[in-house]
Amino acid sequence: AQKITQTQPGMFVQEKEAVTLDCTYDTSDPSYGLFWYKQPSSGEMIFLIYQGSYDQQNATEGHYSLNFQKARKSANLVISASQLGDSAMYFCAMRAAYSGAGSYQLTFGKGTKLSVIP
Amino acid sequence: DSGVTQTPKHLITATGQRVTLRCSPRSGDLSVYWYQQSLDQGLQFLIQYYNGEERAKGNILERFSAQQFPDLHSELNLSSLELGDSALYFCASSRGGSNEQFFGPGTRLTVL
User: Fold this and answer.
1) CA separation for the pair B87, B39 (Å, rounded)
2) SS3 (DSSP) at A47
3) Are residues B42 and A107, on separate chains, in Cβ contact within 8 Å?
4) For the segment A7-41, what is each residue's pLDDT rounded down to a tens digit?
5) What whole-number distance in Å separates Cα of residue B60 and Cα of residue B76?
6) Chain B residues with CB inside 8 Å of A50's CB?
């Protein structure tokens, strides 16, 4: 079974500062994918970034980057230069291993609520 | 805007009732996933359809069922509703073999 652990229920960061949101995972599959989603107070789920288990380089998207440490089974999200609009819930998720039936359902962590302070 | 649409946005109903949630995937996406987000259970995968066929089942109750139609839109049917079914229900879509799943805005279900 796959498991995602996010140990920080809530975090505060000063505007323009960098912040790291922690995510550790557990899986016995050699091939997997890791995702981060953002959920603002309005409720929608916004895809941020993806890292494949065989990707050699850490993924980056705008001011988001994923610090992937495979041996430690961690996939932390780094937000550089935080903006007020970054205040939201952030979810780490893992894609289930390919089942042969084309299924790629996601397993989510409990989330971290990030508050950016002006 | 992810391109995935869900209706209705909000739904308020009573215990014992039946409701239908609708999802239209992004143009060209063949896979539709349904997820439930509740305060106590977090985000949970319910069921997946690919091009009209059921592909995977997660923690979906027997009172819940889904289908995907030839035009690729999907419906999630929830029956004999209980207070604990109150949640935000998301639909997500992806292309076959794609890594990314794009989520709709969700349907907030309140069971009174």
Assistant:
1) 8
2) strand
3) no
4) 999 999 999 999 999 999 998 888 889 999 999 99
5) 11
6) 99-100
